[in-house]
Amino acid sequence: xxxxxxxxxxxxxxxxxxxxxxxxxxxxxxxxxxxxxxxxxxxxxxxxxxxxxxxxxxxxxxxxxxxxxxxxxxxxxxxxxxxxxxxxxxxxxxxxxxxxxxxxxxxxxxxxxxxx
Length: 116
Fold this sequence. Notes:
Elements: H1 9-35, H2 49-115
């Protein structure tokens, strides 16, 4: 026996709200990361082994941080698109439900007219 699946507009709305909150949060975090400017300079003079290693570390840190920011951009984009799709699905479901209700109303009216 097949199981009937039920769609709850409330659940779609909850998922949409959660996706919207996550998209907003991660977009803010991404913006903060993009605006972050960490300059690793200084130390015991502008030359020497310490400064050379600090400079090498800063370069490597910059590369890794750029990868992180790119991953965050992709994730923030995914969340924004998920939110948009959920919004669209929610609207489409409600529109379809309204059309079906109107169709059943018309059918009921015609049956009443034929039977009455």
